């Protein structure tokens, strides 16, 4: 079981990065699998990038408090750090929301 697949291409080679669902393996993982050039399938087996046990540092306040789901942090082509998530988190009304972030050196936070 997997979810939240994201297409990534490096040196012209397509890859799918995805979450291996915790339901099957207790602590979820992020995985990577190479795709065929026409994106029709995977010629090999996926590899684990990292596990959900970190090492992570829990911050006292959540990064985003207003409720949302399936957040992802990425860097824009012009170098800005962004958070994308869907909100609201139920009812079939989910829409993508984008928030700019700033790196404080020891953590990240929503840019004011």
* Mean pLDDT score: 86
Percent helix range: under 10%
Structural classification:
mainly beta
Largest sheet: 4 strands, antiparallel
Stretches where pLDDT is under 50 for at least 5 consecutive residues are: none
Features:
single chain; 112 residues; mainly beta; 2 domains; four-stranded antiparallel sheet; 1 helix; 8 strands
Summarize the structure.
With 112 residues, the chain is mainly beta. 4% of the residues lie in helices and 48% in strands.
Report on this structure.
With 112 residues, the chain is mainly beta. The protein has 1 helix and 8 strands; from the N terminus they run E-E-H-E-E-E-E-E-E. The mean pLDDT is 86. The chain has one helix at residues 22-25, and strands spanning 2-10, 13-20, 29-34, 47-51, 69-75, 81-87, 95-103, 108-110. The chain folds into 2 domains: 2-51, no CATH class; 69-110, no CATH class.
Can you lay out the helices and strands and say which pair or pack?
Blueprint: E1 2-10, E2 13-20, H1 22-25, E3 29-34, E4 47-51, E5 69-75, E6 81-87, E7 95-103, E8 108-110
């Amino acid at each position: 079981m997997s979810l939240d697949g994201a297409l990534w291409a490096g040196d012209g080679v397509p890859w799918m990065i995805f979450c291996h669902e915790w339901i099957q393996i207790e602590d979820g993982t992020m995985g990577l699998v190479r795709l065929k050039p026409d994106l029709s399938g995977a010629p090999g087996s996926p590899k684990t990038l990292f596990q959900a046990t970190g090492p992570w540092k829990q911050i006292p306040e959540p990064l985003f408090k207003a409720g949302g789901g399936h957040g992802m942090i990425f860097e824009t082509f012009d170098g800005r750090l962004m958070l994308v998530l869907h909100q609201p988190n139920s009812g079939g009304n989910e829409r993508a929301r984008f928030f700019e972030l700033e790196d404080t050196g020891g953590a990240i936070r929503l840019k004011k």
